[in-house]
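#structure-requests
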Amino acid sequence: MRRKLSIVVLLHLVFSLTAAAQYRDLASESFERAQRRLQKDDYEGAIADFTKVITLSVVRGGDTRDSARFNSNQETSNHDTITFVSPLVAEAYGGRGLARFRTGHLADAIADCDRALSLNPGLTQVYNNRGVMLRIAGDLEGAIADFDRSINLQPKDAKIYENRGNVLFDKGNAQAAFADFERAIALNPRIAAFYCSRGQAFLDLGDADRGLADCDHAIALEPSFARAFFCRGTALYAKKDFAGTIAAFKRTIELDPKMAAVHGNLGWVLLLLGKKAEAEAEFAECVRLDPSMQPKLEKVIREAKGGREKE
C-alpha cells in the first residue's frame, strides 16, 4: 500500500511541475512581447501583456486545477496560498509600472513599482523609474531615497546620477546637484542632457559663462535637442543678452512647440522689452499647454509691470 501511494504522489508531482512549466513558457512569450511593445511605445499593448505575465506566472494551492483558473484578464488575488511565483513577475510589475506611467496613470505606476520591489529588491531600474515617478508626485525625499538605492546597486549608471541631481536641484541644493551632474558626465561625456543639467547648476551658482558653455556643448552634441536651446536662452538671459535669449527660446519652440515653460519664459522677456501683444500671445499658449501655469504667469506679469513702472 505504501509503495502504491508513493507512486501516485510522485505522478501527481510530475504532472504539477509540467503544468507549471507550460505556464512559465506562456508567461515568457508574453513578457518578451510586452518588452517589444514597450520599445515601440505601444503602452496599452504592453500593459495587457505584462498583466498576462503576472497572471500566468502564479500557481496557487499546489494543484494545477487552481492554476488553470487564471487567464490574461485576471489579476492575482490574496485569497489562496501561493506555491509558485515566477521570477518574471517582479519584472512584469516593473514593466507594467513604466507603461502605466507613460499613459499618465501615476498612482497605478508607483503601486506596480512597489509590488515589483517587494518581490525583488534588486531591480535597479525599477528603483530609478520609481524615483522619477515620485519626483513628479512631489515626494522629493522618496525620490532621492530610490535613486540612492539604485546607485548602490549600479554605481556606474550615469543617468541615475543626473536624475538624483535634478531632484537635489529641485530642493534648492545646487552644489550637491552639481556634484551629481559632474559624476554623470564623467561616466558618459556624450549625453547632451547632462551638460544642460550642469549648465543650469552653473547658472544657479552664479557662473553664467560656464553655464552657457555647457549649453553650447549640449547643442554641439545634439543640434536638435530642444532643452539645450532652452538652457542656452536661460544662460543668455542671465548675461542680459535679451536678443539672444529670444532667439534661443524661439528655436526651442521650433524644435518642441509643446514645452509650456518656454512660451512662458519667452513671454516674460518680451514683456520686459515692452512687446505686450507678443508677450500675451506667448502667455496664452503657455496656459493652453499647461493650465497649472496660470498663477505663476499672473505673478510674472505683475512683477514685469512693476519693474517697468519703476523705470
